[in-house]
Structure formats: C-alpha cells, structure tokens
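pls ignore typos typing on phone
adenosine-5'-diphosphate + seq
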Amino acid sequence: GKWVYSFGGGKAEGKAGLRDLLGGKGANLAEMANLGLPVPPGFTIPTSVCTYFYANGKSYPKELQSQVEKALEAVGKITGKGFGDEKNPLLVSVRSGARASMPGMMDTVLNLGLNDTTVEALAELSGDKRFAYDSYRRFITMYSDVVLGFEHHHFEDILDTYKDNKGYTLDTDLDGDDWVKLVGQYKEAVARETGKDFPQDPHEQLWGAVGAVFSSWMNTRAVTYRRLHDIPESWGTAVSVQAMVFGNMGETSATGVAFTRNPSTGESKLYGEFLINAQGEDVVAGIRTPQDITEDARIESGSDKASMEAAMPEAFKELTRIYTQLEKHYRDMQDMEFTIEQGRLWMLQTRNGKRTAKASIRIAVELANEGVISQKDAVSRIDPASLDQLLHPTIDPSANRDVIATGLPASPGAASGEIVFSSDEAAKLQADGKKVILVRVETSPEDIHGMHAAEGILTTRGGMTSHAAVVARGMGKPCVSGCGTVRVDYGRGTMSIGGRVFKAGDVITIDGSVGHVLSGRMPMIEPELSGEFATLMGWADKVRKLKVRVNGDTPEDARTAIKYGAEGIGLCRTEHMFFEETRIRTVREMILAEDEQARRAALAKLLPMQRADFVELFEIMKGLPVTIRLLDPPLHEFLPHTQGEVEEVARVMNTDPRKLADRARDLAEFNPMLGFRGVRIAIAYPEIAEMQARALFEAAIEAGKRTGEQVGLEVMVPLIVTKMEFDLIKARIDATAVSVMKETGGKLNYSVGTMIELPRACLLAGEIAETAEFFSFGTNDLTQTTFGISRDDAASFLGTYIAKGILPVDPFITVDRSGVGELVKIGVARGRKTRPDIKVGICGEHGGDPASVAFCHEIGLDYVSCSPYRVPIARLAAAQAAL
Ligand code: ADP
Ligand code: MG
Ligand code: MG
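k done
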C-alpha cells in the first residue's frame, strides 16, 4: 500500500481534494506545493495509517518504515541536509491534522532531530549558539510534553528559578550559554522523572512523535472536541512531517498568522499578527503580545511596535501576493500560518478560516459580489444555526458604562454573568441555571466545557488568535482576551484591576465587540441587522419554497418577527394573555365558577381585555395570516395555589373560601399534560371558546377598519383526537362569526382548522380534513405523546440515551424523522387526500431547527413556524433545503 505522500520542490503527490486521506493540513500543504508556493518540503502519513494503527494494536503497516525513510531522503535532497546528519542536520516538525480542523487539539513537535551533537552543528552553521540552544530547549519541552507525558510546567519552574537567580525578567535576557545550561537541567529533569535519558537518536525521536500524534487522536481533549463537533472517531488523523524553517533566527526572522479577511467583521483586508524572532506557537500561546501585520492595523491599534509591512517589506509583499492567490484559488477566506527565516517567507498552513457569523455573511456576500462565488454558493455557505449569534442583544449604548478594564475585542456580542475562575465551576453553576462569565489567565483545550457553559469569556493573556479568541468565535460567544490590567488570583478567587477587587460570584459584563469589561449587569438592546444580512436573506428568500411564520403571542413578538421577515403568525397562544398578573384572578373566577351563568359573568370581564390584545396584534400583522389557538393548557395550571389566592378569588366571587378550595381540589390533576386541557375544555365549557372567538372576530373587524387590510384569521382548535370534537367547536365559532358580522356590519376572512399533535389525530387526519380547513402539526406534543415521554422530565435520561447512541439526537430539538416524522407524513397525506388544498404547517420548537426545517421542506409542508429570533434561521435553512 501507499502510506506516505510527499510534497515540496514545486510538486506534491497529494492535493486539496484528498482531505479525507491527508487531513486538512496535509492536503492543503500538498495543494500549496502544487501551486508553486514556498512550502518547506515534507510528507504526510495518511489517516489510513491511523485506522490501521488502532485496528492492529497500535502497530504500523510493515512498508511504512521504508516509505518514510525514502521520503525523508527526498526532503534531504531538496533541502541539501540529512536527517541525523551530524554536520548538516535536517530538522523537522511533526504535525497532526484531521479532516476537520481541530484547533489545538493535538500537539505539534518542532525542531525534531536535534540532539547534543546536531545542536552544535546547528550553532556552527547559523553562527548563533543562542538560536541553536533556544531551538533545542523548545524541542525538549515539546517532545517531553507530547511524547513522554512530562508536563510543561516542570520546565517553566526550572526556567523561572534560573531567571530569578540571574535577575532576568524576559526570556530574551538569556544568552546562548544560559540556554546551554538550561538544556542540561531540562535533560536531567527528564531523566530523573521518567527514569530514561532524553532520546538522542533522531529516528527514535521521529517514531516517538508519530506514535504520539496517532495516540493523541484518542486523548480526552480530542474526544471531547469530537463529541462537541460531531466528528466521527473513525476519521482518524494524518501526520505531516515537514522540514523546519526558523522564525527564531534573529531580527530578520519571524512567525505569524494571517487571515485574508477580518474574521471578526469580515472586512476585506489582510488581518493578522506576527512576532519577530519567535517560533511556532508563540503567537497563538500569547507569550508575548504580537505585532500587527499591516501598517493600517498598527495605526488603528495604536501599537508602538513596527508592523510587518514596515519592518519586513519584501516578505510582506510576498505574503500579499500569496494570500490573494490563495483566496482566489480556494474561493474562500483563508487562515494562514507562515514563517520568515532570515527575510524569506515560507507558508506552513492554509485553511478556510473560522469566522464569526457576522463576518461569514459579509464575506459570502462580498465574494458573490466580486464574482468569486455565486449567490447560491453564498446562501449555502452560511450555517443557519450560526445566525443566532447575530440576533443576540448588545449593550444599550445609552447606558452608563462603568468600564473597569479594556482588552482585545476577540469575539463580538455582549454578555453579563457571575464571575467564575474555573471551567468546572462554570459548568456546575450553569447546570444550576446561573449565567456566568469565565475569567481565566488564558484558556486551553481543557477549558472547552467551561467555555460552553459560560455566557462569555475573559482572559488576561493572549491575542486575537489565542485559544480563547478562536474557540469563542467558533462558539459565537463574546470574548475579551489579553486584558493585561486584570490580575487574577485563582487561590483567593478574586480578580483585581487597579484598586478594585471582584470576587467569584460578582456580576460583570463583557463587550466582545470593543473589548470592554464592565462592572455589574448592563441593559441590552436588540441587534441591528446589517446590509449584508438583508442581502443574503433576500437571496435565500428567492430560492426557498417553505414559508416561514412566527410563534408569537405578544405585539412585541410580532414586531420582532416582522423585522426578521416572518410571513405570518403560525401560533399565537392565547393562554399567555390569561396568565397575566392582573387577569389571572378573573381567569380563576371563570374556572371555579359553579355554573354557566357565573362563568359567563367572568368571561364578560375577560372579553374586552382579550379583544384589545388581538387588535394590536392584527394591526402589526397587516393582513398577513395569523393563527390563533384557543385556550390550551390544563385548567390545573390556573388554579389558585395558596390559601391567600383562594380567599382573594372567593371575595370577588362572593362565595365561601372553603367551598372554593374544594372545587379547586376537584379540578387538580395528577397528570395535567394528559388531562383536562385543549379542546376538552371547550367541549365542557363551550362559552369559553365562544368568548375567545367573539374577541377575535370583533378585533379582526376593528383592526381591519384601522389598517384597511382584512385580517387573515385562522382559528385553531388544539389537541383534538376525533372529528366530532372539532365539529362541535367549529359550529360555535362559525355561529359567533355570523353574529359578529351581523352586529358590526363588517366582513370577516377566516378559516377554522386544527392542531394535529396526538398520534390518533395523525391517523384520522383524512376524516378530520373533511371539516378542518388547515392543519398545524404541533410537534412538541406529538413528540411527547409518540415517545410517551414528557419534555420537562426527559432531561434526566435523554442524555444517556443519546450518549449510548439509542437516539441520534434530542427529539425535542430535531424532529424524529422515523417516528414522529412518519406520523406527520401520514397526517399530511391523508389530510391532502380529502382536501387537496389544505394548508399544512408545523408550529413546534422544531420549526426553528435547520435539520427539521429540511425535513418539512422534503415532505412538502406549506410553512414552518418558530420563535421570533429563529425566523432568519428558518428562512436560510429552508433556502438551503431547496438548493
Ligand atoms: P496546530 O494544528 O496546532 O496549528 P501546527 O502543526 O500548525 O499545529 O503547528 C503549530 C505551529 O508550529 C504553527 O504555528 C506552525 O507555524 C509551526 N510549524 C509547524 N511546522 C513548522 C515547520 N516545519 N517550520 C516552522 N514552523 C513550523
Ligand atoms: Mg496550525
Ligand atoms: Mg400542544
């Protein structure tokens, strides 16, 4: 078999299309080599070897070794060096890379091939002992950490002690002889702690590192990351071995990271950071504060350190030429890693860059406008779920800002929460329903769960490309990084800025768009939707077939939804109007009434309130369809709970509180969700449905007069299981419509339909459609009743079901295609058979879930309805489903 793919010297055996085999990094290194870009030569051991490795008790295919030897020789030929050569040693990096990028998940070893002999040769050849030993100590630390499992901080302790003794403050204070001594101490520590000398044989080093990369595929960090990002374990990782180039060879050398466009805003301008006289991870790790790449960016940031454009104009020009070429070639924004060795630029990585939702929209729209991609490409490129980020509130600009510190605006958006200093604590508090801000000196892959749990992240160290910044942007969470004036004391559980001290549990706000840290909770406002957002949504609307409505009960919901492009209300729950504090007493009066007359008296009080709610809603919706559901929740939920509440209602009703308490007890239920609710209430007390219908129709006529547009009213009966239930209520509704039209002289445009949310209703849909004029699938209740689980109680075991693979996803989030979905399909088919033009939609939470929207498109529904903030998500998901 072929187990090694070489690249370098202007050609490569691999290419970008072989990503599955070579991993993202390996495939793109090959692609760049094929494009003739300056890439240090090397080779990639494909993911097939990783698969073999795990299938065969962590061993390799037998031809691997000889193929690696051959490839190393070829690299030696191109570079004019030899691996293990004592005079002119070839040094390499060993890099991991899976199909999907897993940033920071698996570690890279640099400067491999150094030992006590070759380090001297390196010093000789470069004429720079400091450089040679700086490289060696980096190699020893990385190799020990990744391969020998000897932790980093041991070396940091040794280094700190050494610096203290010498009175040094910075690493750059150390000269060649200092590093020679330290390397000695490092090796001693390794020998002492691991019981073995640090390996001197370059081949042993190489196989050690290769094995460690493959083994790291199964480490906890990688496993967690895969779980969070749905990356299958079977993919495996590839390993790339590549000739080293040195960014730490003095003042004409550097290393950096650059994006072809700004990953935060999407602005079409080269964006990035670099560090002079540094290697590899220094930029990302935030050990020193990096410098800007372009002069524009330097001026904007007010940095007093030279930009790459000014300090290394030749290399900058070359980088500009290359990034322009790469972006055209890949037809997307690129995230690149490069190193400058003594003035010469080398490309070490390129990939499609991670970006905020805001940036991804701007970039897609601008690429389409530049003619690089099509409008449909642009629509298909945006992850609908990511729009969520854009639709979140930001700090009200008119509020007073008590800015306690300013760091880097690493990931946009604002969030408030209690301070926590550890990721475990963040996860714990979040589970308790608290909102927290994770405050760390810096983050590492071990913090992923804490970052997930937090509303936002604040770090005191690290740049715009630090771990915290990259991960937060990916998660769509606000992040302020590199906030150097904040001192964190993990031991005491405090952070201090100037003289002010904040404890764990104190509330702060971070604004990741500008880098502010503020004390206290800030008022937030609705997001402003940018021009590119509107453009993209317009393109999406052109292709989608599904209509998108909103689940909204209040005028405020309706306004938000219209702004986000909703084409009607798919579900207005009237009970929210009943639960309002000032009305609940009257509602209780109605429920606890002993006879129809008393009930009608209470209903008469509710009627004007209910009518007023609807008038406003209808006015906002200006003629768009509005589905109003009659009272649905169990009566149980409206009952007075306390003695005080009972007495209060008794006083108004002028009855004995004891009698009332008895009646309330009679109505109490063990299992209210399967109890006296939905249409069952209307069947028992038709006057309630009548009151609601009257309020609706009177409001529709009034709103119609005011706006000049007839309201598209759809009256919806919930929770039916038989046609008869529906017919009884429909007759009352129709009769009410007739009287209201007669009384007011107005005209009504309305239909009466039903919610299909119980399995029996799906099966009997054909019969129900004889009289029902529309169906709206209530997939929340349908999921509960199909699975026989309650959404409120399922949390305790659903997680286990998903972890064990019994269920692929939470069926309350993504519609269960094979069970619930099948029932919906049956319902649609039988309903349409009876009434071909019946309007069908869904109105569960699923209406805003992209995967469920795709399902609704496939089975040919007319519309989905979802919560206001999810309307744009549904519009985009519907467009992608239609592409
Ligand atoms: P990650 O996947 O964590 O980004 P990489 O394999 O890209 O890890 O390597 C980490 C760092 O080491 C990068 O910044 C890269 O620029 C640097 N690096 C990797 N290989 C080489 C090399 N051959 N020469 C110089 N620097 C290298
Ligand atoms: Mg990298
Ligand atoms: Mg329901």
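The chain has a mean pLDDT of 92. The chain is about 45% helix and 15% strand. more later
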